Amino acid sequence: MKFSYFYYFCIVSVVALYKNKAQIFQNQLGYCEPFTVEFIAGLVSKEARQILDPGSRPRQKQLRYDLFTRRNPYKRQLLLTGDRNRLLASNFNASWPVRLSIHGWNGQTTTCSNAAIKDAYLARSDYNVILVDWSDYSLDINYFRVVTEIYEIAHQLTNFTRFLHNHTGTSFKDMYLIGHSAGCHIAGMAGKLLHPYKYGVIFALDSSGPVHRSLDAKWRLAPTDAYYVESIQSDVALFGFPADNLAHASFYPNWGLGQPHCPNVTTMEPDFTCDHFGALYYFVESLQNPRAFGAVKCKNYESIENYKCGCGARQCKASDYMGGDPAVPKKGVFYFSTRATMPFGYGDICRMKRPIKSTITRI
Ligand SMILES: *[C@@H]1O[C@H](CO)[C@@H](O)[C@H](O)[C@H]1NC(C)=O
Ligand SMILES: *[C@@H]1O[C@H](CO)[C@@H](O)[C@H](O)[C@H]1NC(C)=O
Ligand SMILES: *[C@@H]1O[C@H](CO)[C@@H](O)[C@H](O)[C@H]1NC(C)=O
Ligand SMILES: *[C@@H]1O[C@H](CO)[C@@H](O)[C@H](O)[C@H]1NC(C)=O
C-alpha cells in the first residue's frame, strides 16, 4: 500500500518538475528558444504551404504582450489591448517603469535574446517588463511583406500603450521602447503615431538597414520619435543601418563591423546573425553595469567609416557610456571596442582597435 503511494508521489513530482521547466522562461539553454537556421527553414515551408493553400494564411494578425515583473520573473502574464480585467488582475504596478522590448523579423517573444533583456532588467530593479509579441507578422519569410506591415504593427502597439496609460496612469515618458532590428522601426513608427505625446526613450539595437536605409524619416526610426533615442549599431555592413541619422546618440562598437566574440559565444543565434545581435547583448550588459562600455566621441559618421576617432593614443579615457537604465542622454557619434569574451565591456578606458572583418562568410 505504502509502496504504491511512493510511486504515485514520484510520478507526480517528475511531472511537476517537467511542467515547471516548460513554464520557466529565462536566458539559459533549455529555458528559452534559440534562434536557429532550422527555425528559419521552417518559415520557408510555412510560406510554401500558404501559397498552396491561401486559406491557411491567418486573417487577423494580433499583437500580444507578455508581462514579467519581479513577482513573476519566469512566467508571463498575458496582456491584451482593451482587456482591462486582465491588466488589473496582473502584477503590473504603475509605480515601476515600463520597458517594452520589440523583437525583430523572424523573432518571437520566447527567444533567448528577449529572455536576456527581461532577466537583466529584473535583476536590476522593479520594472514592468513587457515583451511585445508580433510573431503573427514576423514569422514570415517574406521580409518585404513584413516591411509594409510595420505601420499597422506600430499602430497596434501605440494603442496598447494608450490603453496602459488610460487604465494605470503610467506616463508615456516612463515608457521605454527597446527594439532590435526591424523592431527599432516599429518603435519609431509607434513614437510618431503617439504624437503629440512622446515616449521617454527608444533604445535601438542594430536597427535593420535593408529597405529602411533608403526610406524617408517618416517611414523609419528618427530622433524625433521619443524624447531621447539612442542607437547601438554593430553590423552596418549587412543587416544594420549604415548611417547616423536614426538617433540623438549613435554608438558603433568595433566600428560597426566584425564583433570580436563572433561567430561564437552566445550560441543562441545562427553565426551569420552574430554581429547583428552584438548590440543586443552589449545593451544587456550595460543594464548590469552602466559603465561597462566607455566610449569616445567622434566628429561624425565619416570618422567611423574611416576608423578615425579617439584621442590620438591607443587608449582613451571614456567621455560617455553606452546604454544603461535610466538612459543618460548624449548627442553625437561614438566609438567603443569590446572583448572577445564576456564581460564584453572594457569599462572606463576605451581601447582603440583596428577594425576586424566580419566572420560572416556565407548565409
Ligand atoms: C506597487 O509598488 C510599490 C513600490 O514598489 C509598492 O509599495 C506597492 O505596494 C505596489 N502595489 C501593489 C498593488 O502591489
Ligand atoms: C487603435 O485604436 C483606435 C481607437 O481606439 C481604433 O480605431 C483602431 O482601429 C486601432 N488600431 C489598431 C491597429 O489596433
Ligand atoms: C484612451 O483614452 C483616450 C482619451 O480618453 C481615448 O480617446 C482613447 O480611445 C483611449 N484609448 C484606449 C486604447 O483605451
Ligand atoms: C566557440 O565555442 C566553443 C565552446 O564554447 C569553444 O570551444 C571554441 O574555442 C570557440 N571558438 C571560437 C572561435 O571562439
CATH superfamily: Alpha/Beta hydrolase fold, catalytic domain
- Structural class, please? alpha/beta
Oligomer: single chain
Q: What's the CATH topology name? A: Rossmann fold
Assign the CATH architecture. Answer: 3-Layer(aba) Sandwich
Report the CATH C-level class: Alpha Beta
Query: What's the story with the biggest beta sheet?
Result: 11 strands, mixed
Helix tally equals 9
Question: Which distinct ligands sit in these coordinates?
Answer: 2-acetamido-2-deoxy-beta-D-glucopyranose
Question: How many strands appear in the DSSP assignment?
Answer: 13
Strand order of the largest sheet: 2-1-4-3-5-6-7-8-12-9-11
Helix and strand string, N-terminal first? Answer: HHEEHEHEHHEHEEEHEHEEEE
Round the mean pLDDT to the nearest integer and report it: 89
Q: Specify Rg, calculated over alpha carbons.
A: 21 Å
Runs in which pLDDT lies below 50 for 5 or more consecutive residues are 10-19
Helix content, binned percent:
25-40%
- Overall geometry: globular
Offer a few descriptive terms.
363 residues; globular; eleven-stranded mixed sheet; two-stranded antiparallel ribbon; binds 2-acetamido-2-deoxy-beta-D-glucopyranose; alpha/beta
